[in-house]
Write a structure and sequence with these properties.
Low-confidence stretches: 372-377, 607-621
CATH class of the largest domain: Mainly Alpha
Number of domains: 3
Strand order of the largest sheet: 6-7-8-3-9-10
Structural class: alpha/beta
Strand content: 5-15%
Oligomer: single chain
């Protein structure tokens, strides 16, 4: 029975993730569609339970009147059938409704509903541009994903479950009181108006505080994760005290929102207690006065006073449910700011997979600008740049910082869309092919090759998930990583290829990380290879060992390499010198030296193989 209800909602839907709407209710509806039939069923069940509870009060009042008017010896004969029906409702119908409602609530909705939201939102975020993640704390994004999924569930369930129960219960109670005497309904109506005014004044404020609190909470989490992720830097610079102050500022920002929330909660409780005691006193006093005037029967008093007491008990629960509703609405609004953003880079509607080819790369009159600050003109990074790479050609990109080298690579990987011109691979416009197929055709080794906090095997096989064990071992040997991997171990006792490498690979040395990264790219075996400062963070001995592995990796591939240490790319087939977003020189190392241009000055001004500072270069020029 439990398993049947647990399978009613698919927590991992297959349909492609779409950008969620930015308006609150459309956002909630967007993520509630798969659970909507069961939310409606929950609302119907809650409404029926409310109807039965009100009916029980009516039955109680009528029974008291009949007890007073019916002789004991004929009571069961006259009232037995009516009491039997109510017994069936109370002992059979009510438990069954509660059973089904509980199963829908706990088995179908509580786990599956937020998990479905997390799954859909996570799939959408995975396809966001690189710039999206560069602009935010990773911990903050993760916190918003987790808390927004729970908040959407609570908003949807409180509206459908609590909302239907409270509305039907109150309307039923009002109608029942009025059916005895219209004057008995007046205190309930006045209480409802007072209660509504209080909700209108306090609960939206709680919602606004909750939105600020959600933002402060995710910011606090982001700061904690940022400190822990960069713990080595914190310790190297002896900045524990500074981190404490920075963290305290984030924590105190969160704490102030808690104070604001608790002040409103206290005002809410005090006000609610006042109107609740007024309701009970006015209903009891009015009922007794009407009874003494012989205008209502004792059963009417027996209906009205328990209803008032029941509403008195329910009022705190209702208030907290509404407060929680608006708090969750605030959390959802905060989550929308991160989760409902358009993708900067999207596949074209008619995008097709990139067809495999030898790896010819053409940049044809490419122009690209980064947006500047508000009110400022965007800055041109690449300006009408044309560059053609033949299949199997090895090209080194040279230039001072800001010349546009990394931007050129990012545009080839389509981390950004170009503003003008065209980039093709084997004659195929990269703007017309799917991003996944494009990046599958390109292998990348960067200066800081980040590894996943998983096993060595999983990190290497990331280049080809369907790789066999023999292929993984071959890639390991090619990268000369087979010498240290068998000796690796982790805190769980896993060894060798099964050992986990820590967050971003922190348990490995720089040279070891680079070897694993090279093995990963070797296993991927893409026709185009990008080396972006692949050895600049290593010492000379390790660099020499890694360089020999990179030379083997480059065999038969179209290669684009960036290095500030010019000696590492001097042997490339062609060197392309960039300056201010343009290509200013091209040729082999010896050809460029003989021209005595920018490349020659860069080479001459190097100290220990690094490019000189810009002011030195300008003076040399």
């Amino acid at each position: 029975m439990f398993a049947w209800f647990e399978r009613r909602i698919d927590p991992y839907p297959d349909q492609p993730p779409a950008m969620p709407p930015r308006s609150l209710w459309r956002f909630v509806l967007h993520y509630s569609r798969g659970a909507l039939p069961w939310l409606v069923a929950l609302a119907v069940g809650s409404g029926l339970i409310a109807v039965i509870e009100v009916m029980l009060f009516s039955w109680l009042g009528e029974t008291i009147d009949r007890l007073a008017d019916t002789p004991r010896e004929v009571f069961w004969a006259q009232e037995g059938q009516r009491i039997g029906i109510m017994a069936i409702v109370l002992l059979v119908a009510m438990p069954l409704l509660n059973l089904v409602s509980t199963l829908i609530l706990h088995q179908s909705l509580m786990g599956n509903f937020p998990q479905r939201i997390r799954w859909q939102a996570h799939r959408y975020l995975l396809r966001q541009s690189v710039g999206y993640f560069q602009d935010e704390f990773a911990g903050r994004i993760a916190q918003r994903l987790m808390q927004t999924s729970l908040a959407v569930r609570e908003v949807a369930m409180k509206i459908m479950d609590v909302g239907s129960y409270v509305l039907i219960y109150f309307l039923g109670a009002l109608a029942l009181a009025a059916s005895q005497d219209w004057r008995l309904a007046v205190p309930f109506l006045l209480w409802a108006i007072s209660y509504g005014v209080m909700l209108w004044q306090i609960v939206p404020r709680l919602g606004r505080v909750a939105q600020a609190q959600a933002d402060a909470r995710s910011g606090m989490t982001g700061r904690i994760v940022d400190s822990y992720t960069n713990i080595a830097t914190v310790k190297l610079f002896s900045h524990s005290d500074r981190e404490e102050r920075w963290m305290r500022h984030g924590m105190d920002r969160f704490l102030q929102t808690v104070y604001a929330q608790m002040r409103l909660s206290s005002i809410q409780d005090i006000t609610l207690n006042l109107i609740n005691v007024w309701l009970v006193a006015s209903v009891a006093g009015l009922g007794l006065w009407l009874w003494t005037q012989n205008q209502i029967a004792v059963g009417a008093v027996a209906i009205a006073v328990p209803l008032a007491l029941r509403l008195n008990n329910m009022a705190h629960w209702i208030m907290w449910e509404f407060a929680a509703l608006f708090e969750n609405i605030g959390t959802v609004r905060d989550g929308i700011t991160s989760l409902a953003l358009p993708r900067e880079v999207r596949d074209a509607p008619d995008a097709v997979p990139l067809r495999p080819g030898p790896g010819a790369v053409h940049f044809d009159r490419v122009t690209f600008r980064y947006g500047g600050m508000e009110g400022a003109q965007p800055m041109a990074v690449l300006d009408d740049l044309t560059l053609h790479l033949k299949p199997g050609e090895r090209v080194g990109l040279v230039g001072r910082s800001g010349a546009g080298k990394s931007t050129l690579i990012n545009l080839l990987l389509r981390f950004h869309d170009i503003e003008g011109g065209r980039i093709t691979i084997d004659g195929q416009d990269i703007g017309r092919v799917t991003q996944d197929s494009l990046r599958a055709a390109i292998g990348v080794v960067t200066q800081d090759s980040s590894l996943l906090h998983r096993s060595v095997r999983e990190n290497i096989a990331y280049g080809r998930p369907d790789a066999t064990e023999d292929q993984v071992q071959a890639a390991l040997r090619m990268a000369e990583a087979d010498g240290f991997v068998p000796d690796l171990s982790d805190s769980q006792g896993r060894r060798g290829l099964d050992a986990h490498v820590g967050e971003r690979g922190v348990k490995l040395s720089g040279g070891q990380r680079q070897r694993i990264a090279i093995a990963r790219v070797a296993l991927k075996d893409a026709p185009i290879l990008i080396l972006d400062e692949a050895t600049s963070a290593l010492d000379s001995e390790v660099e020499a060992a890694i360089q020999s592995r990179l030379d083997a990796l480059m065999q038969g591939k179209t290669v684009i390499a960036i290095a500030h240490r010019l000696s590492t790319i001097a042997a490339m087939d062609r060197l392309v010198v960039m300056d201010q977003g343009r290509i200013v020189e091209q040729g082999t190392h010896s050809e460029l030296l003989s021209r005595d241009g920018l490349y020659a000055r860069l080479w001459q001004r190097q100290s220990g193989g690094f490019l000189a500072a810009d002011d030195q270069l300008q003076q040399a020029g």
